[in-house]
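Onboarding guide, step 5: your first structure request.
Type a short instruction followed by the sequence, for example:

Predict the 3D structure of this protein.
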Amino acid sequence: MSFSAAAATGFVVLFLSVTVGQDEPAWSVKCDPSQICAFRGSTVTIKCSYKYPSRIQGIKTEVKTRFWFTKVNNRVPVDLKKDSDYKDRITYNFTESSSSFLTIKDLKQRDSAEYKFRFITNQPGGELTGSPGVTLTVLDLRVQVRRSETQTELKCESSCDQIKPPSYVWFNKEEKMKQQTSSIVVSVRDGGRYSCSVKGHDDLRSPSVYAPEFLSAKLMSSGQITEGRSVTLSCSSDANPAAKYTWRKKNNQSVVSTDQQFVLSSILSSDSGQYYCTAQNQLGEKTSGLVSVQVTYAPRPPSVSVTPSGEIMEGSLVTLSCSSDANPAANYSWYKEGEEAPKASGQNFTITNILFKQRGNYYCEAQNSRGRCNSTVTVNVVAAPRNRVAAAAAAVSAVLLILILICLLVWLIRKPKVWKQQSRPGAGPVPSEQVNPAEESVVYSVVHLATKQEEPLYCNTVQLGPTRPKRHKKRKEEETVEYASVNCGRTRTDARTESEKQDSVEDPAALYSKVNKPGKNSRETPAGF
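The system replies with structure tokens like these:
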């Protein structure tokens, strides 16, 4: 096998020579080489020679038809000039020495095939197809990438077997590099785009190798995402070698998928969140932006609470709170059991001065476009005790009243007057000359209780102070003696005597008191109780 470069025509062809037999028959087709490896975009020429008898049974042999083909239709070879895949790209050349040349320009990957030459003469059965034909392999130069932790090795190679490999040149972003070896070492993630070519044919480059670029992640599903649906996230990038993909959820470093398309076959509300993908190859990696996945669902049973908890004193400030997991976010309404009209809206319901009659069960209803749900809480209100301030005020008032009464009683006791007891009705005042000066402060009280009883109940006299039969004028210390006489009942005779002295309209149950005070004009003073 040999390597040749035709600079004038601008193509590179690698020839593999195979000899087709040693003894040439009268009828023959010989192609040399039988295998050709050419680069994409180049021009290749395939050559075959053929032979046939000049005369058969005195008839001169003449070639009527000559062509090349790769395809057979109904066992009939199809001339390449009639194949649309080769339109305007092929030419035939024939020589007098029975040689045929097939030239193909602008080689494409699909041009790889086995090419055969066929000729037909004027002789009966005088036709022949060369077999085997010439195998053409159209391959790109490719860069093999080998990755280590800190660097990457690039090697320019082709699957065509070459005894004497050519010299290569390297390019980074269209700029020719100094290296002219089959392999080079580059830094990882340096953002370069590397390609190689055969020296002298800079226009026939290998495809570039580079880290992932133009990475995008998107949600393939449209409309609202509801629980149970199948949702697909897709990640794509431009990279060579091809990138590998990983999917992660934000705030969660664990990998949720290693596929380019991440499929959630039966999505749950817990799958809601933001996702991103990473594309990576031997030359680097790139991370996409966030893709938001929002799963809609009806409100979950709300969580309700009351503050303060337990028994609530009447007059307290009470707050009822409600919270539910829902998407879209729920709206909240508060109701009291047994009442249709809502009490409040919003997550919190505050009662500033709760009354005993407001006790009972309240429920919070959470609602969104997907549905509704409610939960109940009990508000236990107890009646408040007597107001402490009012109780204290009443106690103070009672104490003041008692003090006033005590002071009044003391004042009455110490009042400098003498009261004398009248022993019987109609008794006159005690003459002033008979009153001892030391006894001027003596007070007497007579109480008569009139009754219609036939028999006397009782009579009792209470002595409120010591009684002295004699008093001495020389004694400087004055003593106050108090007497009280209470007649609780009388005989019928006493009642009649008394009634003769009273007016006919006088109340028989009246209570009287007579006080005798000595003085200049001593007179009888009645006092009613």
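Each response can be followed by summary notes, for example: The chain is about 5% helix and 45% strand.
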